[in-house]
# Entry
Amino acid sequence: MRILLGCNRYFPDVAGGGNRVAYDCAQYLVSQGHDVALLCEGIPGKPESDAIDGIRVLRYALPRMDIDFLSRHQRAAKKILGRHLSGWLPHIVWGHMPLQMAAMIDVFPQVRAVYTLHSPVSVETVEAESRRAFALGLKIKSQVLLQIERRCCEAAAVITVLSQFSRSEIKRLHGSEVASKVKVSPGWADLTRFHLQPSKSAARDAMDWPRDRTIFFSIRRLVERMGLDRLIDAAAIVRDRGHAFHLYIAGKGPLRAKLESQIGKLNLEGHVRLVGSVSEKELAAMYGSADAFVLPTRALECFGLVAVEAMSAGCPVLSTPVGALPEIIERIEPKWLARDNSAEAIAELMRAFIEKKLPQHLPHDLRNFVETNYARERALPYFVRATIGS
# Structure
């Protein structure tokens, strides 16, 4: 079959959860003998049309000046589709994000459409920008995105999501009729990227991490909804109770300076460190070297890939009970969930871990849990079949 996928960015260009899922699906479809094209927004220095590992990558560029700001993605994407796919009619269009999906169903209105909702864009826009955007403009943008997303959901024959939480969000935002088309198929981790450390002490030495205290680790985009400010406040509470620990936070984003300032004001320089972007090799080592991974999400976690990745490296996950996270954590250890997403609740969980008051699971058991439930080679084919039926 000829299959056209649409997502925000090509994953090797720009990392991201939705981008990775679309990329993994495209790779799998090619391996099964399908003819695959992938539509996405481009980045400077990358060609408009590219053939990479059997995937035809089509990157559109946004105009620098555009009066109609809210429809610029669709218009730019439709031009690229017309330019490069005029003689190539897909059997299926598969949207992974609403802006690209809207362009694809405009260009190919008679083609069977399916859609994967990774996160409701209208809600994510508010959560990501509410503290720094003009309220009226944010409300308008959110409503426009909601309508575009609804159009995509209504056009789709099948909608796949990665969690029951996401299904409930679709029903809340778009109604029961749209929700009746939803299939839940959990996400996955590539277990070849993460592994158990043969020696945690040696791994810590290689990264200059201390051996004589509990090590907490987190990797998140530095934005409001990830709850990292609350994690830092929680670290101050744990420090004030006299516990020896160190917290490393990886990731990049607009809140870096604010979080650095918060660490300074709380005199946490000896306990908390922002380490910025890390390579996949470094990330694997950090997962395997930490005593626990902390997931302080404030809102809207529609799957929780980092939790699965951390456990695949044998690392326990201490989490807020937000979004889809309980769907993962409760299956392995319910007591690793905080009572809520406040700094106080996160601190209670961290203290209980340090004091060995929480149930412990061996690293091999955590990895086996992921292998059984979230391994890429099992979950990805099921997800593709659930979406396109092939």
User: Anything to note?
Assistant: The chain has two domains: 2-188+375-388, 200-373.
